[in-house]
Design goal:
Elements: H1 3-10, E1 37-38, H2 48-53, H3 63-80, E2 86-91, H4 94-105, E3 111-116, H5 119-130, E4 134-139, H6 148-158, E5 162-166, E6 168-169, E7 174-175, H7 179-188, E8 192-196, E9 215-218, E10 230-235, H8 237-244, H9 257-266, H10 275-291, H11 293-313, E11 329-333, H12 340-351, E12 353-354, E13 363-367, H13 375-391, H14 398-411
Parallel strand pairs: 1-12, 3-4, 3-5, 5-8, 8-9
Antiparallel strand pairs: 2-10, 6-7, 9-10, 11-13
Helix pairs in contact: 3-10, 6-7, 11-13, 11-14, 12-13, 13-14
This protein binds pyridoxal-5'-phosphate.
Length: 412
């Protein structure tokens, strides 16, 4: 392993490389022997077809890539439920898609109302501020959904050109169940609506055209069960008009939506596309289409309901009351005297199940996105969670949890 280094040292040129060649461990001795079951807030497990596609490299331009991109856009239109032509991808995390939507639609002086439910919706506000936009936030009480009346008042008062809102706030597991009516109020007031659907797209209904949404963003590693690092977004025709009539080009060259059409609409060069990740995304979308959205939504609902029933039967508390509770990431209140990091470390180390801590809320989170919504994963997760709590000194009823899970699944 160090032959080369030894060779250069022996050949009398020890000073040629002032930084010595490092000795590192192979991945096989870093990664756990048994792969962890990824039941956190993403990344989620990926299907074999996605993993295989992710190992392929093709030319980033040319007819093969053009055929792949054509299909990715067609499938994405189905998943977004939009007829808009302006569907595109971006090399980067969900946050890059978020930044692409915001920095193309907002600029210095733009009036942006950001409805903030937590960590991720607040991120949109921060991105909007950085464009020099005039940003106002509507801060929603933690653990509750945004209210249409309050949103309407804020829109009336502030007269925004753009409203940002999150569909599912992964950080505190709140579902903005009034998204449709808030979008409709915003639209009626002449504002464009940007929706963060990173954790919800393809897990629950979000019909972009029917709800009059102008930009929807998502990542790869959550609902779609693809890899992290390649993300998707869609702009409405109205959003596109605003982008085309901007007074100045956006600051971020890589995230410039007009330039992105070179690759996503004209089979030519913008930057070298993340080829393997695009192929992986193709396969993830193909599996969504094969399943159909109806059946995929039903699977998510059924699995998440069962997980929630199992958690409650363990005698643990769910963080968000039922009406505003997000299905795609379930927040579990931490029992007295137990820390989130203890729970996450213990369940990972002893049961090879990964779950998520939080960004401040006193909870741990279990994902129900894409491949996480499989019965066998649920049984393993509820068992691992129950055992972990017992090991940490929390009195839970493990058999009752497993029974409730089974009852809920077989009743559905
Ligand atoms: C995960 C997540 C993001 C951020 O996605 P990254 O890929 O980490 O950038 C944004 N919004 C929501 C709702 C998320 O769940």
């Amino acid at each position: 392993m160090n032959d080369r280094h030894t060779f250069s040292a022996d050949s009398g040129t020890p000073d040629t490389f002032s930084i010595a060649c490092p000795t590192v461990l192979p991945l096989s001795s870093i990664l756990p022997e048994e792969p962890l079951l990824m039941m956190g807030a993403g990344p989620v497990p990926i299907p074999d077809a996605v993993a295989k596609a992710n190992g392929v490299v093709i030319n980033h331009l040319g007819s093969t890539m053009a055929a792949v991109i054509g299909q990715v856009k067609t499938m994405a239109r189905y998943v977004f439920q939009t007829e808009s032509k302006w569907v595109m991808g971006v090399a980067g995390p969900g946050s890059a898609a978020m930044e692409m939507a915001i920095t193309n639609l907002a600029w210095k002086g733009s009036r942006v109302l950001c409805i903030c439910n937590g960590f991720f919706s607040e991120r949109m506000a921060e991105m909007a501020r950085r464009t020099g936009a005039h940003v106002e936030t509507l801060n929603v009480v933690d653990g509750t959904a945004a209210d249409t009346r309050q949103a309407a008042d804020a829109i009336d008062r502030f007269r925004p050109e753009i409203v940002t809102i999150v569909h599912g706030e992964t950080s505190n597991t709140v579902w903005n169940r009034s998204l449709e009516s808030i979008a409709s109020v915003a639209r009626a007031a002449g504002a464009l609506v940007i929706v963060d659907a990173v954790c919800t797209l393809s897990t629950m209904p979000l019909p972009m055209d029917a709800w009059g949404i102008d930009a929807v963003i998502t990542g790869g590693q959550k609902g779609l069960s693809s890899i992290p690092g390649v993300s998707l977004l869609a702009f409405s025709e109205a959003a596109w008009q605003r982008i085309m009539t901007r007074p100045v080009p956006p600051t971020h060259w890589c995230l410039d939506a007009a330039l992105a059409t070179n690759f996503w609409h004209n089979a030519s060069y913008h930057y070298t596309a993340p080829v393997s990740g695009v192929l992986a995304l193709h396969e993830a979308l193909r599996l969504v289409c094969a399943e159909t959205l109806e059946r995929r939504f039903a699977r998510h609902q059924r699995c998440s309901n069962a997980l929630q029933a199992g958690v409650e039967a363990l005698a643990l508390k769910l963080y968000v009351p039922k009406p505003s509770r997000l299905n795609s990431v379930v927040g579990i209140a931490l029992p007295q005297g137990v820390s989130g990091s203890d729970v996450c470390a213990h369940i990972s180390r002893h049961h090879h199940v990964e779950i998520a801590g939080s960004f401040g809320a006193p909870i741990v989170r279990i994902g129900q996105m894409g491949e996480q919504c499989r019965e066998h994963h649920l049984f393993r997760t509820i068992h691992a969670l129950g055992r972990t709590m017992i090991d940490l000194g929390v009195a839970v009823d493990l058999p009752a949890g497993v029974a409730a899970l089974e009852r809920s699944l077989s009743a559905a």
